[in-house]
Amino acid sequence: MAPSKQDVKISIAVAGLGRMGKRHVRTLLNRVSAAQVIAVCSTEPTELEWARNEYKDWGIKVYDSYDQMIQHSGLEAVWVSTSTDVHASQTIVAIEKGLNVLCEKPLSTDMEEAKRVVEIANKNPHLKVMAGFSRRFDASYRNAKAQIANDAIGEPFIVRSQTCDLIDDTGFFVRYAAKNGGMFVDCCIHDIDLSLFYFGDVIPKAVWAVGTIAHHPELKELNDVDNGVGIVEYWGGKIAYFYCSRTQAHGHDVCTEVVGTEGKVMVNLVPRLDNVTVAQSIGISHKVQPEYWDRFEDAFATEANEFVACILNNTPVPLKLELGLMSLKIGWALQEALLTGERIRFNEKGEQLDGKRANL
Amino acid sequence: MAPSKQDVKISIAVAGLGRMGKRHVRTLLNRVSAAQVIAVCSTEPTELEWARNEYKDWGIKVYDSYDQMIQHSGLEAVWVSTSTDVHASQTIVAIEKGLNVLCEKPLSTDMEEAKRVVEIANKNPHLKVMAGFSRRFDASYRNAKAQIANDAIGEPFIVRSQTCDLIDDTGFFVRYAAKNGGMFVDCCIHDIDLSLFYFGDVIPKAVWAVGTIAHHPELKELNDVDNGVGIVEYWGGKIAYFYCSRTQAHGHDVCTEVVGTEGKVMVNLVPRLDNVTVAQSIGISHKVQPEYWDRFEDAFATEANEFVACILNNTPVPLKLELGLMSLKIGWALQEALLTGERIRFNEKGEQLDGKRANL
Amino acid sequence: MAPSKQDVKISIAVAGLGRMGKRHVRTLLNRVSAAQVIAVCSTEPTELEWARNEYKDWGIKVYDSYDQMIQHSGLEAVWVSTSTDVHASQTIVAIEKGLNVLCEKPLSTDMEEAKRVVEIANKNPHLKVMAGFSRRFDASYRNAKAQIANDAIGEPFIVRSQTCDLIDDTGFFVRYAAKNGGMFVDCCIHDIDLSLFYFGDVIPKAVWAVGTIAHHPELKELNDVDNGVGIVEYWGGKIAYFYCSRTQAHGHDVCTEVVGTEGKVMVNLVPRLDNVTVAQSIGISHKVQPEYWDRFEDAFATEANEFVACILNNTPVPLKLELGLMSLKIGWALQEALLTGERIRFNEKGEQLDGKRANL
Amino acid sequence: MAPSKQDVKISIAVAGLGRMGKRHVRTLLNRVSAAQVIAVCSTEPTELEWARNEYKDWGIKVYDSYDQMIQHSGLEAVWVSTSTDVHASQTIVAIEKGLNVLCEKPLSTDMEEAKRVVEIANKNPHLKVMAGFSRRFDASYRNAKAQIANDAIGEPFIVRSQTCDLIDDTGFFVRYAAKNGGMFVDCCIHDIDLSLFYFGDVIPKAVWAVGTIAHHPELKELNDVDNGVGIVEYWGGKIAYFYCSRTQAHGHDVCTEVVGTEGKVMVNLVPRLDNVTVAQSIGISHKVQPEYWDRFEDAFATEANEFVACILNNTPVPLKLELGLMSLKIGWALQEALLTGERIRFNEKGEQLDGKRANL
């Protein structure tokens, strides 16, 4: 007799035990009934110590080496949640080991390396290799997409999207991000991806960006900013513009508007923590989600469930790995515009015409 | 060696496979990692047929008898999600069989029977027996409670609460509800419970209610209405007032306001399906959750997880069974006021002074 | 040659220089181009002193006697904004003097007297005598009415309406109101009027009300409350329910919902001062209008302009004086229910069956 | 004896009887008690005919020549509401004639001419000459400014502002605007002005803009677009970014956000016509103001009243004429960036370094 579906579980390992890695473990344990977590790894001693204690009763083996972890017997999939500089290499190694991979965005800080990952994945079509653009799993972004598909706003031609994080007084996260490609690669990449999500297949024509440092002077020598605004003009009369910030006082404020010829769709224009509103002598107020996780926890659960389901059922992954390449190219161009003050153009094939990546 | 916590599961059976019963099974399967569903039961042939097909690969035994189901080997807990007339008897049988029980509200359509359930549960303190007032598990209602506890609005003295359902054109649900005690017992009971949640221990002083039939003339002979408004005055200068409806055009519209001496807390004053808003030539609009489940799915998952956790850890249940008794008494009084047109008074001990339940 | 329409002005006197009287003068001076204010009166020495100074350059004669003021040469209309106890007598005297009258609500604290005013006005159809139900001049309430007339919500059958004022710490206003008939006559009268506005010609069937004193213990001996909740059941299956408060912490919070068979119209569910919203570390907030005037200033200007225009053009007044009678009857019944704890019934002609006004 | 202040009136003429001119006449007649309109002018035969009929009983002389109109005996002030190409010359002639002038924005389509107007006005300090940036008179923008001044959001460093008009299917307005300098001079000028309003004295460092034609192909040969997005980087780490559109489906959607180091102020993020919201089977919706006038009618009345008051009381005008110069410079640079695809830089004195206006 076949085992009960309640007992069929994909065995997953989570690489990286930073803030997000820990959360992915929790999601997999609590909200993905078809998964079991059998291993995790980190290279950070404090994370390792924390994990050995935390997971000791949960049947989760804690490794201090990614390469050893992926040897774990019975392992079927890896969730790569490490720092961006090893995303690509870890994904490649896992694929070569025959594992399914969910790799957090961005694939790489290097365009060539990112392309290589895609190439190798494409050579292993039996494996599920998926890019972790979590917003595409959010119910609201999907509903917005569905409404656009149903012609609620006509033909979309403007996307405004912002990713604004609560200020991190320690500055830790900001410095970390600067090393991951800077504002437009690490943070704006989600907004760029959303413009592609809503516009479909579009090719950039020109970009420009400016930024400022409102709270973190140490970013200056890291060639980054903590607030940036950028425009992407696409061939075909479509425009996306973005605002990214690490320094909001009120919480995680991520919103997107899509303007079409017959209307406009707005996602989360005024963020709120929950359904509670309070009236007091100072006015009427509500709380805001403090961070990305609070806004997108359900999306991460959906992402994890869909990834596990496509392994179980051998169906295509919901997000192709290639998706990340175009976003990455645009993100790099915006970051270059930010640093040089120049606008960066592309030809109709999407080849960069200006700046140091021109003709690469 | 102890088994991995990933493998420790409370074995639960779900009684009743109506709309809600099926959902509880799904919640337990997908969102309660420490539970496994081992049995279900129904007396409806179509539900049984559906269940035998749906659950056949899931290791879930389908019974056509509640009494047989609770004999299932290894069973530890029952979720009673049947019609109200058998809530009490099924809960009692399960307790006597040594099972933990989560019983949907209301405990009974009969006050004496409801008291008996509480009595028996109290004699079995080793068992977890819990009332299913799902709103108390909703994050927003809890946040509102926390803010009130933190003195955000001073001393609360007015509660306005409404439970308005999307119109059910078939009329099925409405007739069903009429048999479950009518508008103020079946539907308003949640709002009554919320007034107790926010006011604390209060004793009713007088109630009055009126109603109207907007869509379902067949309710007349069932002594019920499809829209009702009621007031409960509590001893000590506190007032709750309620609006319940089965006939909303726009969706499930459940909101609560608590007015205090220094402010007001509002929960879900304008319902919305998700974070999407659309601007079109007709104006700016958003969708509304179609029903209770869409609004409270997370609350049901929290309820299920907390119930399972208190069995696993042998901790007190979050909601005492007694809670339901006072709500039930007030619900019956409102229903009587609705039918007789008279206001119903209570003395300071909460004993009813008017109407057919007076001096009972 | 006829004079320029810029120079044609109706000459008006304002009776009463309390908070509202002063505002009406300002409205007439600044926002009613076809009016000039030629006289005002008060019996309060401090108001008289204030007015003599304030209006000395404005061509406005200040009287300490209403009777003398209405003798003022060339006077065409009076705006009666005195305390309720003299509304009726002053209106009658003005009519008898051949003046047009805008009389603030309520017409009287005595039903018989109110009827007499209506009678006398009806005998002088050449004069414009209008009831001051200011909300009927508010653009939003009118738009709501228009949408209902356009069948946006089907047949309306429930009205929820609240009038909640910012707390007045001095207690002055509250004591004043108690003398004007109490919570349901002075304050709820607007909400009652709105239920008639949206339902059309309806007859009360039964009412009940309760109240509490949250801030002003001195109201006890004045037989009033500072927070009250009431229900009016109308013949024909229509229900209105009200909440009135003098003690809100956050400002003037006046909202109305009309539920129909196909939808719901909401007016001002979440009050806001203006279009400004602020996001700060404590959350996202906006200010609330502090009082009635801030919410309804435009409505008062519309009211004044329409009243003046109907004098100029000899057209019917927008609000018949009779309108106030039914509201008054219901207001008194609610107030009696509040004080006695009894529900008050009416027969199908609207004759009161219970309480001290029964069979009057 | 001095005349009553009710009879003291500034005599004003309105130049231009297009959509806005007519509205200004109405505002002056109905909402500015200290003004009388004694003359108007237009060169459009249909407007003249309309005016001669409309104003015949109002003591308003209708001229077909601006130069003749300003000879009108007793005239004290002119409201210049003609097309942009004559704003400057008409303002200059009026000043030379000794008249006070309220001139609609922008002062000119030519920078040098605009400067000349300012110069001449400065030589006539006894006359009130004011720029018509109507948003600065809007209660919400002023409240936002006041809150920022009160340190509600710390130091402002980002302004996002949009001016989105309801689509004009006739295309008339769009072609008209193209002749008035194009998208960023005619329409975005208000948003640019708001960035100066909230940032204070700032100097542009670089700008870029892109645009698209969504509905009006005829704009191509007029070198304009019907949707444009632009960024202005100011010296000192401040950034403004703008979206202007002529093609919104839902109405007039004008909003502004100011981000500071400690918070964010939002003005009108979700536009609404009034306080009415409707719930129907399709969802919950509200209407949007169809156009600028509906959103800013009160601001225009405030502007008119303040202009008249500063003539009456000989006080400084609330908005200095110079204000328009910097906005105009930035608007032209954005328009040039739009047309050339190049970013335009400025030095720290605000002198343009790139493009055809460089070193002018």
Summarize the structure.
Chains A, B, C, D: This is NAD(P)-binding protein. The structure is a homotetramer of 360-residue chains. With 360 residues, chain A is of the alpha/beta class.
Classify the oligomer.
homotetramer
The proportion of residues in beta strands of chain A is 25-35%
Widest β-sheet, arrangement of strands of chain A: 12-11-7-10-9-8-15
Kindly state the percentage of residues in helix of chain A. Answer: 25-40%
CATH topology of the largest domain in chain A: Dihydrodipicolinate Reductase, domain 2
How would you characterize the largest beta sheet of chain A?
7 strands, mixed
Domain count of chain A: 2
What does this structure look like?
The structure is a homotetramer of 360-residue chains. With 360 residues, the first copy, chain A, is an alpha/beta fold. Chain A folds into 2 domains: 10-131, NAD(P)-binding Rossmann-like Domain (Rossmann fold); 139-295 and 324-353, Dihydrodipicolinate Reductase, domain 2 (2-Layer Sandwich), CATH 3.30.360. Chain A starts with 9 loop residues before the first strand and ends in a 15-residue tail after the last strand. Chain A contains 11 helices and 15 strands. The first copy, chain A, is 35% helix and 26% strand. Chain A has helices spanning 19-31, 45-54, 66-69, 84-96, 111-122, 139-149, 172-179, 183-187, 189-199, 292-313, 323-340, and strands spanning 10-15, 35-41, 61-63, 77-80, 100-104, 129-132, 156-166, 204-212, 227-234, 238-248, 253-260, 263-267, 276-280, 283-286, 344-345. In chain A, helix 4 runs parallel beside helix 5. Chain A binds chain D through residues 153-154, 157-158, 160, 206, 208-215, 227, 229-231, 233, 237-239, 241, 243, 245, 247-250, 253, 259-264, 266, 269-270, 341-343, 345, and chain D through 153-154, 157-158, 160, 206, 208, 210-215, 227, 229-231, 233, 237-239, 241, 243, 245, 247-250, 253, 259-264, 266, 269-270, 341-343, 345. Strand 12 (263-267) of chain C pairs antiparallel with strand 13 (276-280) of chain D.
